[in-house]
Amino acid sequence: MNQALTVNDLTVRYGNGCSYCRDISNPLDKNRCPHCKSVWAVRNISFELYPSEILGIVGESGSGKTTLLRSLYFDIPATSGAAYLSGYSDGLVDIMGVSSQQKRIIRNSLLGMVYQNPTQGLLMDYSSSGNVAQKLIAAGSRNVGSMQDRANELLEHMQIPLGRVKEPPKQFSGGMQQRVQISKAIANNPPVLLLDEVTTGLDLSVQAKVLDLIRSVQKKLNIAIIIVSHDLAVIRMLSDRTIVMLDGGIVEHGLTDQIMEDPQHWFTQTLVHSLI
Amino acid sequence: MLRVENLSKTFHMHVGEEKSIPCLDSVSLSIEPGSMLAVIGPSGAGKSSLLKCIYGTYLPSSGHIYYNAKNGDVYDLANASLQDMRAFRASEIGYVSQFFHAIPRIAALDILSEPLINRGASASAARARAGDLMGMVGLPESLWGMYPSTFSGGEKQRLNIIYGIITKPRLLLLDEPTASLDPVSKASVLELIKELKSEGSAILGVFHDYASMQLVADYSYHIVTKKLEAVA
Ligand SMILES: Nc1ncnc2c1ncn2[C@@H]1O[C@H](COP(=O)(O)OP(=O)(O)OP(=O)(O)O)[C@@H](O)[C@H]1O
Ligand SMILES: Nc1ncnc2c1ncn2[C@@H]1O[C@H](COP(=O)(O)OP(=O)(O)OP(=O)(O)O)[C@@H](O)[C@H]1O
Ligand SMILES: [Mg+2]
Ligand SMILES: [Mg+2]
Ligand SMILES: [Zn+2]
Predict the structure, then answer these.
(1) Which long-range contacts (C-beta less than 8 Å, at least 24 apart) are formed by B68-76?
(2) Between the N and C ends of chain A, which has fewer C-beta atoms within 10 Å?
(3) Greatest Cα-to-Cα distance within chain A, rounded to the nearest angstrom
């Protein structure tokens, strides 16, 4: 297998489901079962992430983008489906089916995640360098001195002044918090990085800085990235390919310029022409 | 190198009122290595769309786009996998769009050297080559370190063209390469195109300037009511 990540028929359901909604041919009310009210946040999604590419995911609010990333990061259990990482057992073993101990290992050494909400990714009262070191410890690093150096180096590369790395994230601006999250996410040079709305809510000049840093990290580490964003300009600038999600499913995917300039699905057309 | 057969494109709009916009109707053409085919036609005739269908920016509605790849295989770009398309764009097929998309916050010299560095050139060799080309089309050294978003229209266009040819793509798609250029820079750009052609690349160019077209093209077609006709 030569893809960085392969996802097959992944489904994430909130709620127990019933015989009606377990039958994929029955229509839902958007992503919700009209009978048992379970939410099929991600429904039978399959896609591949190529090595060293940036894959964009766009979609309606509530279409399942965050749920998808969080289930790939093992925050939320997948209801069904499989995923394969080229960095784990040569991509031959379904990572959704391994033990929780194996999942921890995968998460700590092969994946990095930046959450839409920094409070989910960071301990807000703990020092920023400590937050980054946490990821290094999780991956088995034991040498406190070299860990500190590495944490400081990462934060400095993300343009957090060295004089401030001991401060807790709660004293930082939103853009700085996102940059601490990115430092933490890439601390172990993971081959796959998951980014959920990294630039949302930041003012434009800070957004630009974060985007430039993502681009340079991708080049330097040659990693594969999935970036979820509402902002089509961000997707256009960073991603080679784009997936469009609606109601838990993929309605269209293609080269980013094709998705933007010749969208086929009505929802993508609406999105691109910003008529929502 | 490239053989387009009965390529048609209709846009289907699902937003607001459903409608279909026919754009290309059974266009066929072929281009040999080391030659340039030019297409000329009025605004809205479908010239840019033809290039975009070949490059994969637009999805053809029907027809075939056979491309002889460097690996010796023939691919139908109308149905190629995204992975193949991405690989061709990265190393074999170049496209110079009608309108320049500036990559934000990267200096002109870095934009141009990057694709060479990605192919294994040293940073110094890549920058030297980029500098040579910029010099050739009259982009002064004072601009090399600047962000292209600050360039004039004609400066952007020359940068765009150099970006398209710096890697010597086997197949180059050029959309109005001389449109907003003064006569001197126009001549230098045409010279670069000729040079690339003499090195064996196949080029498909779109023009609205008949005189420029005649200086570089080996064959030319008019787009007339969405179809191609040979220029007398
Ligand atoms: N813990 C939960 N329990 C029940 N439903 C949930 C839960 N978390 C999310 N959902 C629902 O799952 C669906 C997908 O939510 P998700 O957060 O993945 O969407 P999203 O695409 O990231 O949206 P946004 O663009 O607004 O961030 C939504 O309908 C949401 O209401
Ligand atoms: N992305 C698109 N979506 C819908 N219609 C389009 C799209 N692109 C082009 N068209 C339509 O296709 C036709 C041909 O457009 P195209 O841009 O190919 O013309 P052109 O010959 O390049 O014109 P110009 O000389 O003005 O650049 C026009 O009617 C245009 O409105
Ligand atoms: Mg979300
Ligand atoms: Mg045009
Ligand atoms: Zn149900």
Answers:
(1) B68/B1, B68/B2, B70/B170
(2) C
(3) 58
